[in-house]
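Render MFS transporter in 3D.
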Amino acid sequence: MAVLSTGRVLGAVVGIYAAQSIVGGLVFQSVPAVLRQQGQPLGLIGLVWLLMLIHALKFLWSPAVESLRLRPDGTRHSRHIILSGQLATALLLAVLAMAGTDTVTLFAILALATIATATVDIACDAFAVEQLPRQARGWGNAMQVGGAYLGIMLGGGGFLIAVGRFGWEPAAMAIAACMVVFAIPLLLTPEPLGDAARQAAHRPSLRDALRRPAFRIGLLTVLAAQIALRIGYGMLGPFLIDRGFDLETLGWLTGLGGTLAGLAGTIVAATILAHHDVGRVLRLAVATQGVIFILLAAAAMTPDLPREALMALPLLLGFIAGASFVVLYSAMMGWATGPQPGVDYALLQSADAALAAIAGMSAGLLGQFIGIDACFVLAAALALVMAVLLPGLARRAERGA
């Protein structure tokens, strides 16, 4: 059975996740900021997070995608699924360029693009799990998260900068073109044959994943690790807009600056993971999230805080978010190394996405009715509590994987 070189896999992984994350950056960073500048209420902005429910539900069709991806003769069709989905998404982004910012049309097009990327995610994650050797998993996750940050930088901060300078249509056409460019490394990467006997004998199903106790503990670990970040991060853009930051400045700060900080976090986390237990590293990352959310809450309660201090906080949060994702995704890969990695990983990500949707909408309502500072206080408290629980959960899931 042919095996791809690790370097080639890492290059393809960067391109895959950069392309996938363009839509995420657009939906969850750019659109909330644009809507806020137009004077839309936080309650409406929070509805953007309903689109995350699509990612939360993708586990329902993951067995069908996995059955299409893994054929009984040993062939794998990950590339075909990924490239087809990314082309469809690029076309939708081109339509978005011409459609403008009418709220109903905007939500409809973004919903279709999110369905496409959620479906492609199943094949993306399976490709990464299958092609990355265990010893390269930490750096593979760094490339995965790094590529995702690159896509978020373009769909989030880069898009905001382009909108501020050139307008909506050129900005949307530019990110559609980026989607096509990022597909090239995978297009040039052949996919090795799988184990024909194993693929023919196994029928992908949700039941196969959920019947494993260790996998269920892994699901719980994902929720515990992500709940604070999902509640607090969603209010960062609206908070800075309310403090007088314009879209272009916000784009540079949370887009380029936050992305570079996140990339630094991925490198630091990958290095630490090579020498330390994943549960302990995850506890450190989540506890640090708690400290940063305490600082954000204090900033939200201090109207005359200098602008420079406000600008430092998103960078700190971006750094620790990048580190947290690398550690968590490394653990998730270990829990999804069975005969149906697409289904297993989709379930883990769906749990995170469901949490993000619920937390994002809840944060929007909290911000509207009792203040953004309350969101940051809640996020800080949850992070500090979960940091205590995470090492034990991660060890139990790892022992059963």
